[in-house]
Write a structure and sequence with these properties.
Blueprint (H helix, E strand, L loop, with lengths): L6 H21 L6 H8 L3 H7 L3 H16 L3 H4 L5 H18 L1 H11 L7 H19 L6 H20 L5 H36 L1
Helix pairs in contact: 1-2, 1-4, 1-7, 2-3, 4-7, 4-8, 6-8, 6-9, 6-10, 7-9, 8-9, 9-10
Length: about 210
């Protein structure tokens, strides 16, 4: 994590992430080695391990940087009059950007799903970033949204696997995430409404 780093250390860490991203974009997961990352960033190999415990840890940080860039201009991305339109616009943007950089996306998916304890914290940061971006796109509080976020996280991961491993057409995958976003949001709103009605009925009976 980048917490507590000096300006020079943060800049060096950012160079390492940028170098790993460039290698993954050119050659995929197999092209990223700590040795090559160090060479590309012009630092010693020990320096890479000072910031990242493993290749998968490093590539998961690349994933977070990638996701932040994809959703950075949220006002321009989350276009629509309704919460569902804004949410599905962000989901589709993620899918289409991933499809345009399939080699990088494949490397990211392999790293994020790795059985590597050093990835755990970085993976949590990535999840929280995506969760916050989706919530911001909706623009209004949705009771019980936590569970809906988990579902959409799985949908997005499945979408990226469909693009990279199953080689499904981007239009098909985009439609799947749009439909999933609408259904999940509608379900969360319906559940919240049912809960409100139930509570009100119970209060009335009391």
């Amino acid at each position: 994590m980048a917490r507590g780093l000096s300006g020079a250390q943060a800049a060096r860490r950012a160079r390492l992430v940028s170098a790993a991203r460039a290698l993954a974009l050119d050659g995929g997961y197999g092209a990223v080695t700590m040795h090559d990352v160090a060479d590309r960033a012009e630092v010693g190999r020990a320096t890479v391990y000072r910031y990242f415990a493993s290749k998968d840890h490093l590539l998961t940080e690349v994933a977070t940087d990638w996701a932040r860039g994809v959703t950075e201009d949220l006002d321009a991305v989350a276009v629509g009059e309704t919460a569902a339109e804004r949410l599905t616009a962000v989901l589709e943007r993620i899918v289409r950007t991933a499809a345009a950089e399939l080699t990088l996306t494949s490397a990211i998916v392999q790293a994020v799903t790795a059985d590597d304890p050093s990835v755990d914290e970085a993976r949590t940061v990535l999840f929280l970033l995506v969760r916050d971006r989706l919530a911001a796109a909706i623009g209004e509080p949705v009771p019980g949204w936590d569970q809906a976020e988990v579902v959409l996280g799985h949908v997005l991961l499945a979408a990226l696997v469909s693009l990279t491993s199953l080689h499904r057409p981007v239009d098909e995958v985009a439609e799947v995430v749009r439909t999933s976003g609408r259904l999940v949001l509608a379900g969360a709103l319906a559940a919240a409404e049912d809960g409100t009605v139930t509570r009100a009925a119970s209060a009335g009976g009391a």
